[in-house]
Amino acid sequence: MPKPVICIGAALVDELFHATSEMLLATTNDATVTKTAGGVSRNIAQQLALLGVPVQLISVVGNDSDGDWLKKVSLDAGVKLDAMITKEGLTGKYTGILNVDGSLFSAFLTNAAIHLITPEHLQNHIELMRSASYILADANISVDTAEWLMNFSNENRIPFILEPVSVPPARKFRHVELKGLFLITPNEDELPVMCSEQASMTQMQIEELLERGVEQIWLHNGKMGSALYKKEKAITLHAPDIEVVDCTGAGDGSLTGFILGKFLGKDDMDCLKLAHTLSAEILQVNGAIATHLNQEKLLSRITNYYPS
Questions:
Q1: What's the average model confidence in pLDDT over 108-132?
Q2: CATH no., domain 5-305
């Protein structure tokens, strides 16, 4: 039986307000609203499960109707929740304000309670952790938990991937030992805050993270595409030219596609193509999950964006 990918981090209710005209400050803006299941690690877990990858989600929800709903959505998709935490109180919520073109204007995160995912909790589920093929955590987890995961992954030779999420959680890792980290996935805003002030240019920042022990840095450049850096080489891939409906979850989808590629044994460039393809598909629908795709359909669509 294939070993699962273990995803650790946020599970949230995504409440997205889509502006119907150009955003104005300090006044009322007309909008439509959608509610979907979200959270970086939860999104990745659900998308992986829909694409036929065995997956376990370690996250936190409240003992309210939103928490029950998030667990049901995840379980229905095929995500296992053997080490899920249910806390007293409200489930976390991500409230996003989207411009008329689907890009993010601002966002709020409330009640996530990710601090409850402690090293002790993971240690209590050590056999589950040892069963992993890959471990993915989003940077909403505490530094202590991330350090435990790095030590665990190095000792057990299980690749560990860290997704920075956004600037505030990424900044926590500026002075953290990253030796043996398999992959980190910043964008152009997150990369500088993870590095020292002396590393003032992108290439210097990449070199600093490599010197700190990161095996691979996958730098996301939005519409410009992405670049995967290792000590011995770097590869780049342009992003498909598409009409964006909703930017929510595109980064999560991109990382999901990359993990799927690695799970299937593909090389780095094919992993990037798969990642960009899934991200493009998500950008063209509302919400953070491409529910219209299974693994076969996704693989067949790569050539739509990257003809041989």
A1: 95
A2: 3.40.1190.20
